[in-house]
């Protein structure tokens, strides 16, 4: 670059630079410690908290109907000043409840109460009370959470039987309730009674296509929580129509092949003793058939596992004995699947397994015709299934029964 | 009416801002335009005085007087008058104290002129005819390697000041014999402390150009290594050598180097750093466009790639041109070790360069703008540790970075044992205390420390400095626009580097312009068995290294 050019360009360049710096300043800069780091939210039927009522008495009221109560779980920064004393200690969090008829408005009421407004980029879970889900369509319920750009799309969606607020307040303070809920969904390799996590971004296509889907259900008791089955969200209305029990949820997972591990407990035919078969892998093949306008499914489940526990007498090295165990397991699984299919097809008349996807792929033209009332078609469809179980190993024991 | 007009006028605050925005760049540009070069440097003929045209007369007393006048009051000129042999023919030996080799003068020159001529070898002593001619002395008496004759007083002066001795004879021709008695104070060719390797030759240049060219000849190619000597410096003349391999280096390149060096009209050139700054392509760029090194092997390998080396008397630093960006992140060790570690270490260095440039700016953008991009647990613990820090992240980073730069600068100047103490006091005590006092957050200290270590992982010191400067600019970009600003800065940097040239070679080649063949020696160091050709970007005459 020659000196002349530099001279010619320098003023322009410097003016640009100055404009850039002086005009913009530090655009939308917010320091991390000034944010109300929010890691969870719960939606309940509108019921004002005592504080809110007290505020309103003193004139802190605005025009609203008390339809919903939104509870945010906000992390409180440590008061330690410099060095962190976290890790193992109590986790400081605060649940802030606001009541109103618009999520957005109530969220913006929080800055009126706190120095650190809600910052939603670290959302972990949204827990919806079953009562709300029964009354309000998912489409309206999640409109705010999906529309608001600050929310994290990977945030997990759960249903809570009872008051959702309770699911975000645990007795055990060693971990944040929201992160505990999230961590529990990672336990699928240990239990097949957990629904594969449904995040906001996965929820959106389900809502938009008006299909029936399941959401993990949480129950609370005395500051403790448990994952218990799943809630069925009916496609057409987008509302909650019922629950599946733990075992039924397990059957759904078997049918859809979303199993990473889990146990199948059965009782020996002759002795009635407990036998536990631990699934190590389960592969499912689903093939829809279209026959004269009627839809049917063939589902093949091919599982491998290990003998986890046996209370009956028998020789681990005896293939006949193993066959017996496999038979017991298959019978047990069939029983559960039958129960589930009965409930789904007869009681709820809703496709909780997600078979619609296979119809859409195999018979796209037919799907276009039937998709508007797919759940009814599903209720009438014949579902045939076949289960294979294979005991591959029997653990570290090698005690041979003495003849 | 007036109110409506007044309401549309901008407020004083806005006007003041506008004034600043216009005035600051304008004043800066005015200041810059004043520091321009003179259009025509005064030509040599005009500046040199027409002096010392007087020839020597051959009369010793007269000539000595002339030389004394030329030297004026300077005391360190030593004039030794004596008679040749046992005759009465007057002679004088002139030399400057200190820079001439006294032992050589005493033992060999004076002894042979005085004693040997009279009492030495019988044959010689008898055969001498008086008055002794210069030719006879040169042919038979003076056992000195370098000898020449000059006939101007000014030349005598330069030669004397260079350390040579001048011999004057009474009743002789008008010329003065100059004897090569120059004494050089040099170091041995030890390993340079600025560029240390684990494996490789422990050989570096020293301050004598003689030694340096010798080293090049000894360790480099012998037959085709061309060393062109040029004198630079208007007032203090110094020897400069341009070295290249004749049938490898591009002739245009050599010519360009010569031209640029010959255009230098500075009065005194202390170090190759002066030359570097005077011949580089873009003096506004933060990047060093010429590599300077003390390592012999670096220079030899650069020569083999078709580059040109510039050596200057009085400095161990040798310049090699053209220089590309990847050279600054390469170490000779990459080639000495096997190719897999060589490649991995090189990738590591690119990573370190990235960290040292963008580390703190990424910290600022994550902390102040994009908190959603940090893993939740980390975000919470950062928020926790930062809750007591009173400054925004930019100020926090600036405090620590500036402290670190001061520490580095201070440690550099101190003697080695104290330097380490400074490192401990500064790094550990201040860092720890700053965290305890709540001025900075612990994560910040980690970021600064990692950045500092990364910047020292760059083999070339001046490249490290360049990246360090850019780090500060990047920090401001990050403070204004967050990650978006960092990306903008990166693009700005890329466009600048893509435009930069070093002696006709694009600075970031072989990346741009894209030459796949040269990528064998870029981020990856290919096995030597595959590196068969010299870099294409050098446009060498003889591209094949290995069949």
UniProtKB/TrEMBL annotation, chain A:
- The source's domain of life comes to Bacteria
Where would one find coiled-coil regions in this protein?
A: 323-350
UniProt xrefs under Pfam families: Spore_GerAC, Spore_GerAC_N
Query: Membrane topology per the record?
Result: Lipid-anchor
Question: Which InterPro entries does the protein's record reference?
Answer: GerAC_N (IPR057336), Spore_GerAC-like (IPR008844), Spore_GerAC-like_C (IPR046953), Spore_GerAC_C_sf (IPR038501)
Whether Lipoprotein counts among this entry's keywords is yes
List where in the cell it is found: Membrane
Query: Where is it found, in Gene Ontology cellular component terms?
Result: membrane
- Where is the Spore germination protein N-terminal domain positioned along the sequence? 29-216
Output the GO biological process annotations, alphabetical, semicolon-separated.
Answer: spore germination
Q: Which segments constitute the Spore germination GerAC-like C-terminal domain? A: 229-395
Q: Which UniProt keywords apply?
A: Coiled coil, Germination, Lipoprotein, Membrane, Palmitate, Signal
Q: Note the PANTHER family from the entry.
A: SPORE GERMINATION PROTEIN B3 (PTHR35789:SF1)
Q: Which family does it belong to?
A: Belongs to the GerABKC lipoprotein family.
Full protein name: Spore germination protein
Q: Which organism is it from?
A: Paenibacillus aquistagni
From TrEMBL, chain B:
Which terms are listed as keywords in the entry? Membrane, Transmembrane, Transmembrane helix
Q: Note the InterPro entries from the entry.
A: Spore_Ger (IPR004995), UPF0353/GerABKA_families (IPR050768)
Q: Which GO terms describe its cellular component?
A: membrane
Regions crossing the membrane:
12-28, 347-369, 428-457, 469-493
Write one Pfam family the protein is assigned to.
GerA
* GO terms for biological process, alphabetical: spore germination
UniProt lists the family membership as follows: Belongs to the GerABKA family.
What is this protein identified as? Spore germination protein
Species per Swiss-Prot/TrEMBL record: Paenibacillus aquistagni
